[in-house]
Write a structure and sequence with these properties.
Elements lengths: L1 E10 L2 E11 L4 E5 L6 H8 L7 E6 L2 E2 L5 H8 L2 E4 L13 H11 L7 H7 L16 H13 L5 E5 L7 H18 L2 E5 L3 H7 L2 E6 L2 E7 H6 L4 H8 L42 H4 L5 E2 L5 E2 L5
Parallel strand pairs: 3-8, 3-9, 6-7, 7-8
Antiparallel strand pairs: 1-2, 1-4, 4-5, 9-10, 10-12, 11-12
Length: 302
């Protein structure tokens, strides 16, 4: 459904996304994980062309949307929507909840009378339409954000850290709501998150990102049971409750390099805990390749 090929996004000298090949299959939830600043949100926004790519292609149902003008892209906007991380900052505080949900309906010439039904769909009472964002709780605002994203009937939804700003007690409710909506509406999700436990619970496959590149991609069960990239192993080791087995804690040395001046070769090599690394780690950028268990990793030693 969504296929990116050799996709890159730059902000001046900053290489936010670099040569990403990624496919999100129809009806699945693909998790996207990695440290802050690795390019996850930029990749999500680039796939929707909310951010313009520097190079590469993005196919939506076989159509390369990078080649389309803004006017030509508009009909496809209904197929692609986004749920933002901040359930308060993503709303105009001067608009009522009803107006916020109705806005995309008006833009696309759809029936604004659907607003009460959309609110009910995400578990909110119709009378909340008359309130303003500051009058709702964080969980209620995120439900409104979901209703707004689904208003135009999209097929593909980028969920950009949709629960990170919520209390733990509310996070499970939102995750369950997203799962229910996926089943009822046949949605496809790119689920961006720092919470590896939630990713394990909700995602069919997981892509791991480091400094703008995808370094591992696998079925969720395979990735959590047998991570192949050293970076993935370090991430999972920080969450000992992910599986019943105990993982040795891997503490990475140093900080994430600057995306404006990434290291030569494998960008992870300055922090990689693997001893006796081959010379290629320092000189050659590893390509994402299929391993013996069906997973993919961009690593010379995986």
């Amino acid at each position: 459904m969504i296929r990116a090929k050799n996709l890159s996004t730059r902000y001046g000298d900053v290489r936010a996304v670099t040569e990403v090949d990624l496919e999100v299959l129809r009806g699945e939830t693909l998790g996207l994980v990695g440290e802050s600043g690795c390019g996850k949100s930029t990749l999500g926004r680039t796939l929707l062309r909310l951010v313009e790519p520097s190079s590469g292609t993005i196919e939506v149902n076989g159509v390369n949307i990078v080649a389309l003008s803004r006017r030509e892209l508009r009909p496809l906007r209904r197929q692609m929507q986004m749920i933002f991380q901040d359930p308060f900052g993503s709303f105009d505080p001067r608009m009522t909840i009803g107006d916020a949900v109705a806005e995309p309906l008006i833009i696309h010439g759809l029936d604004v009378g659907r607003v009460p039904a959309l609110l009910a769909k995400v578990g909110l009472r119709a009378e909340l339409a008359a309130r303003f964002p500051h009058e709702l709780s964080g969980g209620q605002r995120q439900r409104v954000g979901i209703a707004r994203a689904l208003a135009v009937g999209p097929q593909f939804v980028v969920c950009d850290e949709p629960i990170s700003a919520l209390d733990v007690s509310i996070q499970a409710q939102i995750v369950n709501l997203l799962a229910e909506l996926q089943r009822s509406d046949g949605l496809t999700y790119l689920f961006i998150s720092h919470d590896l436990r939630v990713v394990e619970h909700i995602c069919d496959r997981v892509a791991v990102m480091y400094l703008g590149r995808i370094v591992e991609l696998a079925e969720t069960s395979a990735l959590y049971a047998e991570p192949r990239h050293p970076y993935t192993r370090a991430l999972l080791s920080a969450v000992p409750s992910i599986t019943s087995s105990k993982r040795e804690r891997i503490v990475l040395a140093g900080d994430v390099p600057s995306p404006s001046a990434p290291p030569s070769g494998c960008a992870f090599h300055p922090r990689c805990p693997v001893k006796d690394k081959p010379a290629a780690c320092f000189t050659d950028v590893p390509k994402l390749r299929v391993l013996d268990n069906g997973s993919c990793a961009a690593c010379h030693v995986a």
